[in-house]
Amino acid sequence: MPNPIIHAAAALAFLLCAVTAHAAATTTYAGAWFEIDAPVEFTVRPSLPSASADGFDSAFFTSPDGAVEFYIHAPQWGGDATDIAIDPATESLSDEKVVTDGPVTRRWFTISANDGSYSRSYLTTTDTRGPTERTVGIRYRSIEDLQANNAAYTAFRDSLRQFAD
Fold first, then answer.
1. Domains recognised in the chain with CATH numbers
2. Among 46, 15, 52, 17, which Cα is nearest to 33's?
3. pLDDT, tens only, 88-108
4. Measured in whole angstroms, how far is the alpha carbon of residue 33 from the centre of its chain?
């Protein structure tokens, strides 16, 4: 007669191996005031130099096929993410939502190409207690590309470690 404890342990071991086998490999990128884990196969492009330390306050991470691009802006205290500003000649703000909960304000917004070739969705979080500000986002060619990369993007977003002096 089969032992249910052995079967349960074997099933658990199989699931753990399956999850481990499908976990995306990441590499840690160190900005001037943050660290973040990005998929190892993505290409990093540092963007805005830090005004208060060596390194960069923002960076883009592009997938090998160019289907998606992750973004992080996490300066020491705050600052404008000018490298993701809307280009009014080719882009429009297509969606925006702002929620304030005490000292924390979250702004979700999406910028879309006027020709429909891509969209960029961001979350800016501002905390007046620091004061700190950070923006994280993803550029995608289609909803299918967004959905296919959602798990990697969520892991990227959730891995942010922001520092202060």
1. 26-162 (3.40.1000.10)
2. 52
3. 999 999 999 999 999 999 999
4. 16
